[in-house]
Amino acid sequence: MPKLSVEGLKVTYGPIVGTEGVGFTIDEGETVALIGSNGAGKSSTLKAILGMVTYEGRVTYGGEDLKGLKPSKVMRKGIGFSPEGRRVFPQLSVLDNLRVGGISRPQAELPERIERIYGYFPRLKERHSQAAGSLSGGEQQMLAIGRALMSKPSLIMLDEPSLGLAPVIVERIGEVLTEIQKTEGLSVLLAEQNATWALSLSKRAVILDLGRIRMTGDAEKLLDDPEVRRAYLGI
Amino acid sequence: MLDFLSRLEILLNPTVLGQVIVNGISLSAIYILVALGFTLLFGIMRVVNFAHGEFAMLGAFAFYHLTKDLNWPWMIALPAGVIGVAAASLVLEWLVFRWFYQRMFESMIGLLGLNMMLIYGGVLLWDTHERNIPAASQEVLMLGDIIIPIDRLIVVVIALAALTAFYLFIRHTRAGLAMRAAAQDVETAETQGVDTRHIYKVAFFVAILLAALAGSLWGQIYAVSPHLGERPLMMAFIVVILGGMGSIPGAALGGALLGFTESIVGTAFGAAASAFLSFGVVIVLLVFRPWGILGTPEN
Lengths: 235, 299
Known about the structure:
Structural class of chain B: mainly alpha
Largest sheet of chain A: 6 strands, mixed
Oligomer: heterodimer
Shape of chain B: globular
Distance between the termini of chain A: 37 Å
Order of helices and strands of chain B: HHHHHEEHHHHHHH
């Protein structure tokens, strides 16, 4: 049975359609990329899974229907979230940002968990008492991922983690993600515009266009597909 | 000009100076208590609580009835009244406040209406005459030429203890952390596991608790009537604009500035002069630095 299953998802904002007829699954420990340009429906899909927007269709996690649950309840089922644009709490310290991420866990667990996150991202440890708003874009992205990991999720959803970051930093984040996924046995849903990078990290991918699924399949095959190369990889 | 200087000279008299300092501290502490709750509600739920002063009024009446009618000692009547008012106010949270969360402009009008309802509800219940809460102590403390009434001292100690407790709560508890996160970004806080509906209720309870306490202390110094809430509300408004809407350190700084200005200017030139000056500063600040001394500009 897949870990996460999305069927016939439709999200609308008044007359505007965010996504329509989107469906896919993620298995335990698998990375799936959700690829598309601005407005393709990536964020709408993630927001629906989290319960941030109302939707038609069905989302199940570990066999359990998530419809009607608030985001703070959905995340307690084991779904970590790193939002688009990082959205760290700018005036809180790095440490307090991580603590917020761990707010659903027993207090006694937090120090060990925080040390583990510092192990993945040593830069965060160096800057633990600094206000998160004063970090560089790359550091804020690391913090957003670290914060999402604090709740010990079994699935982590990342919304555009590469946005606005230098290629070197993006590469680094990709390496750490792979490492984290191995040690924590995580499933990953990676929503990205940077198709080359996302496909290189994923096993399977769903390509969205104007809110609908355009293509879906193995990441390796999609990387070789002429249409994908032309439309999304700029080659 | 000579008159101006001679009025300032009054302040150099040690007896007067002692009064000015004690008044300054107690006024500051009370203003900070009211303003902290006001700024908390704005910072987290984006409601401008124009009815905030009325919770101070309700706190004062609860304290009055418990001490005067039931003859409870003030040490029991004060916490019982304050907690009782905050708990009972959760009904208003459910009936009125929650509909205005994250709707700033509607909240101003709606809660101005609630403000009027509470004032005139108070008039129906208690009519308009002023009552006095029995003083917690009749004694005075003599420090050389400086005379400090013990009941004033009690007000200062309780207010400072409450402010310390609030600070520790915000900095060192899980609910405090959740509030600080929600104040910065409610939507993200919810996705990271903060149950915002619950945190709204906790923040509301704490804000009303502080207002009711401030009202009780105010009633101990001045008189109790259904119109008691108007001044604390106006002062809270000045304080949060001085310090910055939604800023907790700003509320503390603004409260101290206002309390001491009022005590110093009020003693030398009268209450009208101090109110004239305070509101004048607010207008100047709103023109040149609308986010206040310690606030951050909204984009």
